[in-house]
Amino acid sequence: MSDTTRTSKYFLVCAGGTGMRCLQSFINMCSLGMFSGQTIDVLLLDTDAENKDKKNTENLIQKYSKLMHNNGESKSNKAGEFFSANINLYTFIPDYSTETTKRFTLISELEKGDPAVNRRLGDLFYEEPVQEFDLSHGYRAQTHLGSYLMYHAFIDEIRKANSNDDYKYSSQLYKFVDRIREANSEGEARIFSLGSTFGGTGASSIPVMPIAISDSAKIISGGMVQMENLFYGASLLSNYFTFPSPSDAHKAKDGIIADAQFFPYNSAAALMYYIKDQTILDTYKRFYILGWGEFNKVNTADYKMKISGKKESKTATGGKKQENPAHILEFMSAFAAKHFFEKGKAEELKTVSRTEMVFKGIEAISKGDEKIPVINFEDLVSTPSKSGEVSIDEQFRSNTYAFFAFSSLIQERYRGRTENLLNDLSTYNSSYELTDEQLEALDHHCSYFAMRKETIEGDEINIPGWFPQLWHSLNEAPDGTFLGMNPIVFGSPIVKGDVKWLPKWHYLYEETIDDNPFDVFVKRFKKINGSVRKGTYGDFMSHIRKTFTSFSEISIDPDTTVVNSESLEEQ
Amino acid sequence: MKKISLFLCSSLLSSSAILAETVDSSSYKSVITSIYMQSAMIAVLIAVVTIILVSVIDYDLVDSRRRSQKDVVRRRIVFFLTLLFSPILWFFTTSMFMYNNMSKTLGMYNWAPDDNWIGAKLIDAYSVSGTFILTIGFIISFILFAWLLKAFANKHKAWTVIYSNHKVFGAF
């Protein structure tokens, strides 16, 4: 996948657990038609090789690569075909699993030379537990250590690759930086970092990323890098989720461990640093500051218990069990990257001498003491459109509704097997030829997006997919407050067994809400696309999109709902 | 209102007498042609009704591991039942219920007692040629209308009776 010959000017660096989840949002944004016909190079950066979010993200990109195609126009104000953006993945994971790299003291070789002097020097910067904790689960919110180690890992990797041809061909970081160097020599490279400010790897990486990449590019090119052609941006995510504090036994065992109760302080301290540090302000062109303010934060443990009905015995702060639900703020981060990539010409960015801070207020409604955010499509993406032209947020709404409806239909009717839908459509003289790889990837993406089945302790349960998780992240947003959607489309917690949390896509459209939705779908599919013999995968996705986007979407105005419910209460 | 109803009923009861047409050796050929036209028109009407009936049946999206699709089969059942019973009904209606040997009438046609050969020709036109025309007319009309609906109105349900899975009747 990384061997593509297409060169992009858009580069995305995703660091740490939050970075991985933001990347998942970015991939989903692309699958929903954004960056149509364009290429994005993505560097996946993590220190925790076992992290399940990372594995899920890698898996998602691998599946995406089987589905991506070139049927798209490269226009920033256009939401095109599904999967029409090209994504090249590069992975870099500093190896902290060996006997010589698993602790700071080993990497820094404190025991060599004069250990007493070295230790005293180390103690000046880091407390002893920080120097000694196992790095294989990441930097564990110790950003002062993490930044140092991440920069070191970058430079070390590039130097090794630069001096050894065999290593060079295997080093994905080298290839990624080399692409940046190519784009730089062609006039423009926009590099956007995604990660949290409150965790470990992301918070450690964002401050050093411009310097690490620029220095790496200089090493590759022998100093021939035009710094004015490298544009850096980042989203700064402050704390937006929480999880139960680790038990005393857990703390005693691991020594240094991430604890969500400190996330707000970590975020505040990091933001102070970002807005004051001169190196940061000189190197970054734009920061997108994203926070969750007074809104209720989703507790990952409560969420998992609500879905599975089973309580987790131990807090997962890394490793195979760290798999948090998707959050709307991660999706907003992905759109921040889109904004950075497409907003303003290179010449305009060159005139930015000090980091621009970008933020956006979200509408909220009050329900008792609680404040409920109201998320609209315009909050995610908006560009000025000419009169008579459909705005980008409207196009994106249509695509989002369409893909959610399609992937939910596949789950509801075919238990996740697209092949069976193809067989049914073939009966109606619409046949498409998809390879086994495409079918498998599409099945995976649809179940990931809408709903998947999982067996937990012998019970088969429905796990909400990425898109319904966004709704759950708003604590099951009431009528219309999440993208104008009726909450019923995300399924119901009341019914048991097979249909619990099963998305009810037919509530998305006026045409499908009352009649047999499958009949309505096929009728419209045939009406729009006619009969097809041996259609390609691209044709299939395009026909599915055309069919669903031709329906009239139901959008609920939360203000009207509030008024209605208030007047009902008065009566 | 009562008077209107009474008038309509009496008109209907005496319609065969009012509309009755005596067939003789000079007119029997044109009458036979009109009988053929009648059966062809009835065939078209039945085809239209059948298309409406098959179009009422919903498309069926269903996981083949649970059960097989049934909508196309149902539409074909409607089509073949109509194809089977329409000629039978036509044959018995024309040769038994409409025909009266005593009064020398067949539907709205009558003939002189001496012209029994005309009666035989009319019965033959109704029950043999008419049945054949009805059957062929129904099939042709159904295929034609189904194709027209598919090609120009983007309505595909009726066409799936004839053609599914890119094969005639899904098999050939």
Strand order of the largest sheet of chain A: 3-2-1-4-5-7-9
Largest sheet report of chain B: 4 strands, mixed
* Silhouette of chain B: elongated
Supply the number of structural domains of chain B.
Answer: 1
Tell me the β content of chain A. 5-15%
Within the largest sheet of chain B, what's the order of strands? 1-4-3-2
Tell me the overall shape of chain A. Answer: globular
Number of separate helices of chain A: 23
As for the CATH topology of the largest domain in chain A, it is Rossmann fold
**Oligomer classification:** heterodimer
Total strands of chain B: the figure is 6
Largest sheet properties of chain A: 7 strands, parallel
Q: What number is the mean pLDDT of chain B?
A: 88
Structural class of chain B: alpha+beta
How many strand elements of chain A? Answer: 15
CA-based gyration radius of chain B: 21 Å
Number of helices of chain B: 6
Low-confidence stretches of chain A: 1-6, 563-571
* Average residue-wise pLDDT of chain A: 84
Radius of gyration of chain A, Cα only, in angstroms?
Answer: 24 Å
**Amino-to-carboxy terminus distance of chain B:** 59 Å
